[in-house]
Amino acid sequence: MNAVLLDRMVRKWQRILRIEDWDLDVRIVHATELGNDTGLCERSAALRFARIRISEPSQLSPSTPWFHRDVEITLVHEMIHVLMPPDRSDEAYSLCAEQGTDSLARALVALDRRKE
After folding, report:
1. Sheet with 39-44: strands ordered across
2. Which residues contact 47 (CB under 8 A, 6 or more apart)?
3. Does the global pTM surpass 0.85?
4. Which of 52, 64, 78, 96 is deepest in the core (most CB within 10 A)?
5. Which of 112 and 116 is assigned the larger pLDDT?
6. Cβ neighbours, 10 Å, residue 107
7. SS (H, E, C) 36-100
8. Domain count of the chain?
9. CA–CA separation, 54 vs 34, rounded Å?
10. Distance of alpha carbon 96 from alpha carbon 82, whole angstroms
11. Residue 41 domain boundaries
12. pLDDT tens-digit map of 43-58
């Protein structure tokens, strides 16, 4: 994915999610940089800054679920984390939060694609 397209996608979803006042550093990275993850969001609410990394989809295993290979869905998933409170150490809470974020990201992107 080229940088211009990624930047357009970031700005579009910042507007939709109403986080235009956040400074986002979003990059596509080699899949090995994220280990088992397809995306990662590190954020500072105090600074209103988030660093988002997304695995290059072509480098992911064929067994990776289709929605994790979709850059836009992964981007929206990670951007939703900007809006959420920091993860608790509770494993069950983290699992539920991730599953909910996955579902919400897929639904938002599907609705957006339907109107296009």
Report:
1. 23-29, 49-55, 39-44
2. 23
3. yes
4. 78
5. 112
6. 12
7. CCCEEEEEECCCCEEEEEEECHHHCCCCCCHHHCCHHHHHHHHHHHHHCCCCCCCHHHHHHHHHH
8. 1
9. 8
10. 17
11. 3-115
12. 999 999 999 999 999 8
Report which residue type is found at 69: R
Structure tokens at 76: 């929206």
Place of tokens 């609410």: 45
Q: Which two tokens stand for residue 116?
A: 């296009």
Q: Residue 80: give its domain's CATH number.
A: 3.40.390
The strand pairing partners of 25, in sequence order, are: 51
State the pLDDT at residue 98.
Answer: 86
Cα separation, 17 vs 55, in Å, equals 22
